Amino acid sequence: MSGQRTANIILAVFIIAKFLLQTIVVDPAYELQRDEYLHLDQANHLAWGFLSVPPFTSWIAWMIKMLGNTLFWIRFFPALFGAMTLYFVWKAVEHLGGSLFACILAASGLLFSVLLRLNILFQPNAADVLFWTMSFYFLIRYIGTRQNRFLYFMAISFAFGMLNKYNIIFWAVGLLPAILVTSQRRILANKHFWFAAIVALIIFLPNLLWQYNNGFPVIHHMQELKERQLVNVTLKGFLGDQLLFFFGSFFIWMAAIPAFICYPPFRKYRVIGWSFLFIILLFIYLKAKSYYAIGLYPIYFAFGSIYLDQLTKGKYLRFAKFLLPVIPLLLLIPMFNLVFPLLSPKEIMAKKEKFAKFGLLRWEDGKDHNLPQDFADMRGWKEMAHLVDSAYALIPENERQYAIVLTNNYGQAGAINYYSRFKNIGAVSFNADYKTWFPWSTKVKHGIRVKTDEPGEDPNDTEEKSLFSNYYLIGYVKDSSAREFNTKVILLMNANTDINKVLEAEAKED
Q1: Are residues 133 and 38 in the same domain?
Q2: Residue 4 falls within a domain, yes or no?
Q3: 3-class DSSP state for residue 362?
């Protein structure tokens, strides 16, 4: 069997292992996470942009919808993006002249890392990491071969990354000074570099025009993010998370840092090393969320694994080095039940003290709850949707065109639209993308209100009672492990005022 054939078989084993692991790290007791419902609903409102994200995720959501909207396909695509990330890193190792051992070490480090958690969820983050990795990969291929086609592949990868999540702009901004301070600055004199940049702009242009036509909502979104969330980001927390993301394999990507300095074959690739410094400094300066930087790391596993292979070639280290690919798994095993939704809510509650010890039960409200917040965000949605269906069924069929389902947040609206047996129920919210999907043309006569009482709020003191002739409390979400616990569903019949004007006023307040 040839060496390349052996390598391809082992790569296939890693990819299969990636898909299998993604299926077992989530207990069946958990549903989708709230963000996933929003992204799935985007398939019903295809456009060149959204308030929350660029359009790429909606294209994948449309494909999932065409395939039946089943849980299998929802889980499949994030796992696919993770497997593709592993594939490109493996190929980068091969291109850089790394051995089969180096390929295995890099693949092991990626397989048993934060990507295992990231690739659970149908969100832009999985594809974001992939496009970062692809952009770096094609830059490496260009530097190694000077074939201009790789500049175009790099530009296309970057452009689709922009159509997926604007976060990849950090890659381009950080890469530019890295090019200027290294010998790779000659790339700027290559006309194909600029032609490739034009290709990237053409691909991204429809979304750019959408932003322009809609008043650049991304600017408002970033300002809101800065005021509400990024202001709480600390340097200590950001840097600490960078190590935790690849807890069991940080020694692999960190080996890339001395590799660019000490390993002669990597001298021409020092632009990749400098880009790491500039991108990290950019993230720190802008107080970015720590997970924004995850896409930066996979390509450094390629350089680090090759350098570690070279360092352990001595006869005394030759056998010991074969333990290196096992270390990421060994260090991750004790954390499996804590990091992944692998245990059912009952099992977590039975081990509540262990989770509380690590601060995993503390939510953003500063209090300890029954489940980690991320896990609680994956419970209670079906129950809520069933309550809404029970209410909707009570509205006469010929009157449903005058009914509206109004929720408190995008997770509620998306989950109802996903699980409801009524295809055109059209739950909405004044939150996220639902602001632009609001059915203002509907002359509202009946309503279903989905809401969670604020702390200290009198559940009997409801504004809706005065707006409709009939008020029926259908029920509450009873799952105490769900973040939506105690969310109530109210059926409102026969409006006694102009509800559209009330909704317009509420929309302006929000």
Answers
A1: yes
A2: no
A3: strand
pTM given for the model: 0.93
d(CA 297, CA 302): 10
> Smallest Cα–Cα separation from 374: which of 342, 414, 422?
342
Half-sphere exposure in the Cβ direction for 209 (13 Å, CA): 8
Q: What radius of gyration, in Å, describes the C-alpha atoms of the chain?
A: 25
Cα 32–chain centre separation? 13
pLDDT, tens only, 359-387 = 888 887 778 888 999 999 999 999 999 99
Same domain, 298 and 447: no
- For 456-509, write each residue's pLDDT tens digit: 555 565 677 888 989 999 999 999 999 999 999 999 999 888 888 888 888 777
Question: How many other β-carbons are positioned within 10 Å of the β-carbon of residue 384?
Answer: 25
The residue range of the domain holding 443 is: 381-509
CB 499 within 8 A of CB 440: no
Q: Are 444 and 404 in contact (CB under 8 A)?
A: yes
369 shares a domain with 328: no
Same domain, yes or no, for 87 and 126?
Answer: yes
| Count: domains in the chain | 3
Residues 6+ apart with CB under 8 A from 3: 100
Question: Do 372 and 434 belong to one domain?
Answer: no
In contact, 79 and 130? CB cutoff 8 Å = no
- Both 386 and 297 in one domain: the answer is no
Q: Is residue 196 part of a domain?
A: yes
Do 184 and 90 reside in the same domain of the chain? yes
Query: Which H or E run contains 177?
Result: helix 169-180
Residue 502 within any structural domain of the chain: yes
Quick check: 203 and 55 in contact, CB under 8 A?
Answer: no
Q: What are the Cα distances from residue 401, in Å, to 109, 111, 244, 424, 434? A: 54, 49, 51, 9, 18
Pair 122, 145 in one domain: yes
DSSP string, 431-481: SGGGGTT--TTS--SEEEEEE-PPTT--TT--GGGGTEEEEEEEEE---TT
